[in-house]
Design goal:
By secondary structure, the chain is of the alpha+beta class. The chain has 2 domains: 3-158, Quinone Oxidoreductase, Chain A, domain 1 (Alpha-Beta Complex); 163-259, Rossmann fold (3-Layer(aba) Sandwich), CATH 3.40.50. Helix content is 21%, strand content 27%. The chain has helices spanning 44-50, 100-103, 153-156, 162-172, 188-199, 214-220, 231-236, 255-259, and strands at 3-10, 19-26, 32-40, 67-74, 86-89, 92-94, 115-116, 121-122, 127-128, 136-140, 145-146, 180-184, 203-208, 224-227, 243-246. The strands form 5 sheets. The chain has a 5-stranded antiparallel β-sheet with strand order 10-3-4-5-11. Helix 4 (162-172) packs across helix 5 (188-199).
């Protein structure tokens, strides 16, 4: 398959800094969309992959799976995009499309293994996939999302990971105007969870270990903040919530938040 060279930022080993490098992208196939990357978020997964914290990193690696840009080329069979459209790509760029999971639009559970945006296997080139820390990316249109023209593109990028991570449970559990949602933690995911739950009309509570984030949480839309280390406060909300979203990125005891008992 024909390829072309582009500039990217990646690393050649677990202990090397990211640096400029050249990588190969495939020419667009009939179903592909070529995107000029305008913004790419930085996810902790990118850092773990670069450092091989999870094992299995294929070097050189180019991270980045919160990609937003402009369509510069489309294949002959592409039907949902045209040159000039704003588009986005998340953590997947392919799957088998034939297994039971894929047929149910659950490509993340592809029984034959989905293809990650980076550190996956590009079936077209028989090499690893390279992510969004690059000038361009070429992706099958099935895994490309349309971006409305009126959005701040820099702010859209995190929606491709932190956004969908919190949106998915909210939609799965049918959160709406009569829902009561609690969010544990106010990091990147916690920010998204509060804003999205509030946008759906829910009453939103933040569980935080300290009161230092109270003002910020309320600015984001939280109706109240409960200090999870305060037994008295926790008992006042026992059994109140329809859904609790835990966004804390390390192992911790969730029992106080679930049962309000110490």
């Amino acid at each position: 398959m024909a390829t072309y060279e582009i500039k990217a930022f990646g690393t050649e080993s677990a202990d090397a800094d990211l640096k400029k490098m050249n990588i190969q992208r495939r020419e667009a196939t009939p179903k592909d969309v070529e995107i000029e990357i305008l913004y790419c978020g930085v996810c902790h997964s990118d850092l773990h992959t670069a450092r091989n914290d999870w094992g299995g990193t294929i070097y050189p690696t180019v991270p980045g799976h919160e990609i937003v840009g402009k369509v510069t080329k489309v294949g002959d069979e592409v039907t949902h995009f045209k040159v000039g459209d704003l588009a986005a790509v998340g953590c997947m760029v392919d799957s088998c499309r034939t297994c039971d999971s894929c047929k149910q639009d659950l490509e993340q559970y592809c029984l034959n293994g989905f293809t990650g945006t980076y550190n996956g296997k590009d079936k077209h080139l028989d090499s690893q996939t390279f992510g969004g820390y690059a000038e361009k990316i070429v992706v099958d249109e099935h895994f490309v999302l349309r971006v409305p023209e009126n959005l701040d593109l820099a702010a859209v990028a995190p929606l491709l990971c932190a956004g969908i991570t919190t949106w998915s449970p909210l939609k799965h559990w049918n959160v709406g105007e009569n829902s009561k949602v609690a969010v544990i933690g106010l990091g990147g995911l916690g920010h998204m969870a509060i804003k999205l739950a509030k946008g759906l009309g829910a009453e939103v509570t933040l569980f935080s270990r300290t009161p230092g984030k109270t003002e910020q949480a309320k600015e984001l839309g939280a109706d109240q903040v409960v200090i999870s280390t305060d037994e008295g406060q926790m008992e006042t909300v026992a059994g109140k919530f329809d859904l609790i979203i835990d966004t804390v990125p390390y192992i911790h005891d969730v029992n106080p938040c679930v049962y309000a008992k110490y």
